[in-house]
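Dear all,

This email documents one entry for the complex benchmark we are building for the journal club exercise. For each entry we list the sequence lines for every component of the assembly. Then comes the predicted three-dimensional structure of the complex as a token string, followed by one or two observations. Please use this as the template for your own entries, and keep the labels exactly as they appear.
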Amino acid sequence: MSEPTTDIDRLQQRLAGVRKEVGKRIVGQREVLEGLLVCILADGNALLESNPGLGKTTMVRTVADVTDLDFSRVQNTPDLMPSDITGTEIIREAGGEREFVFERGPIFANVVLADEINRATPKTQAALLEAMQEKQVTAAGETYDLPRPFFVLATQNPIDQEGTYPLPEAQTDRFLLKLVLDYPSYEEERDIVNLYTGGGSGSTPPVEKVLTREEIKEIQSLVREVPIADDVRDRAIRLVRATREAETVEFGASPRASMGLVLTAKARAFMRGRNHVSWEDVEAMAAPVLRHRILLDFRAEREGLSTDDVIAELVDEV
Amino acid sequence: MSTTESTDDTDRPTEERKIRRAITQIRREGWKVAIIYAVIDAALATLAVNLVATFLGGVPRLPARLPIPPAILRTLRETAGVTLAEPSVSSAAVVGVAVGLLVFAVEVAWRVRRPLVEQFEAANPALQESLRTARDAVRQDQHSRMARRLYESVLADLKRASSVGLLDVRRVVVTVLLITVVSIATVQLAVVDISLAGLGDTPDAGTPGGGTQSEYTGLQDGSSILGEPEDVPEGSEELDATIDTSGSGSGDGSEAESAAAYEDSGFGGSETVESQRAGFTEREQLEDAELIREYNLRIREETDNE
């Protein structure tokens, strides 16, 4: 094996180590954890939908811990201002002189958890999502680059919708993936209880850092180099286009979804130690990439079809 | 091969060149398999057509034997030194060979209509996606680290893969068995001379006066060629011989004894007896008879002169 190949092997082993370390704190939720890592490797952002108390903050914080990334958390509320997230200029006195200094907001971190993003006002949401998309913040005429790698995990609560500002479709399209965190199984819940209420020094099991920021950036670069067969790529594109033509879909996915589907499939293939994208990768990433980008029409609702059901049908058709 | 693939290979990374060679080799294997199938199917078709045509007594609207073009005869004579005793060939065999060639051409075309590398991929499912991806990457001239890693991986997998999967061994065996069975049936048919050609014809069919001519060219019944048995003249070659009764002459002991017995019986005397032999088989006896006859004539002449 040549030297580059050895390096790639080592990075793939590190990724396996990340999953193992996160598994010390998070019981189950393998698909969500995989989606989270895929999103980081694809240099994207994720929207996480879950009920409260399912460990999403712990999961994201743990991922940040094992990857040597800065972590910050923003609790969105209706009175949250854009500058509370991005930062603002403040007057600082130093040596008898006053000067405007940009005080960086919580968005200046590698991993940002934006809790209950639908509780923030549309103006604050837009500021957050714009920063997320542009990877930079502009304040008082100055542009500040966000640290790299940069990853936002925004959460939504599917219940208790009163007093919320649902994200418009154009904004949700900016999220690479939408992950759905479901309740754990009985056995998993029992293990969670044992893990966090048993003996030991603290409530949180320790984890080791196994991946550096530089290595993450290296992996992000490698992910884009993962070869994909023409027919697999074309089929992925056909799948996204099918969402625009399906009878049960009122609003289909954009070309950004096509790019996202191929890129996340590459990231998944890399994470699984493969050197090429398989159709299996595209299938696995279809629902997370598409579920927040399409709107079902009344026929699907009348038939009791969920977004994931419609996507599964389209995957079978293409 | 595409034009992209035919560009200067020496400028490409080693793995990429190896992948291109491997793909060429896979295509070659695909051709081999297509030809193997086509050859055995063509052989079976040739033998089967020949068998049916023979059983039916010939090919409709074709004479039993077709003349070989002089050009072919000349070529055979000049190149191989072969001179055919009979410059014609059975029409059943000609039609069989023609059908066989047609089957060969059609089957090869049919088997290579689907890209040969895809056939190889289908026969090796474990390699299918990686090989296809590598092919596309090579076509797009990808030299990235991941592409090179993929090339290395595919080359390693190809070393373990086999093109035997392209060949359905059971089908080949069944076809070869059928070829054997049809061959044996063809030989057996020629030996026992079973043919539907004579069924329904008049008894004198096939005879020059019957108005029809049998087109069967295989082994035939001897009596049908030679005709019904009949009496033929035995032939006549009779010689007259005069034998002197004096007993002198032949030197044959038995004849001398019989002559003496004749004289002893009281019928002898000076009278001469003329005997006649009706045929003989041995040349020596004929010469003796001539000698006796000449000798007798001389004796008579001498007696008359006296």
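Observations: The beta strands of chain B are 65-67, 88-90. The first strand of chain B starts at residue 65 and ends at 67.
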